[in-house]
Amino acid sequence: MAIVEDFTERKRAEAIIYRQAFYDALTDLPNRRLLIERLASLCDEHEAEKRGGLLMFLDLDHFKLINDTLGHSAGDSLLIQVARRLESCLAEGDLAARLSGDEFVLLALFDKCSDEALEISAETYMHKVQLALSPTYWLENRG
pTM of the entire structure? Predict the structure, then answer.
């Protein structure tokens, strides 16, 4: 006698629940919960595995003004564009997350190196992010 069960629907439901728990629905970036878990796992690394890195908090100035004057769809469009630009800066193992509203965090990891080399790597990375975020954003057919 054999019992055959199709787990396809169950696996699909589990994937949906995981996505809802750990990813932002609008931008599809990891959310605060996944970021905190990632930071906790980095803190738990053995001393020999520890790496240097950069934790960058980003907040969009005057975002409320965009929502109030152009509408929430324009604000949503801006958040999505920012998310895609942040993702374009990520190297393997890095993370861009949306904390809430107009707040983002970028976590970049570098190979363990001297303080001076770490500072140079962080400066280079921040400049890359600045260049990615600088071009014009299009909201409701307006630049």
Answer: 0.85
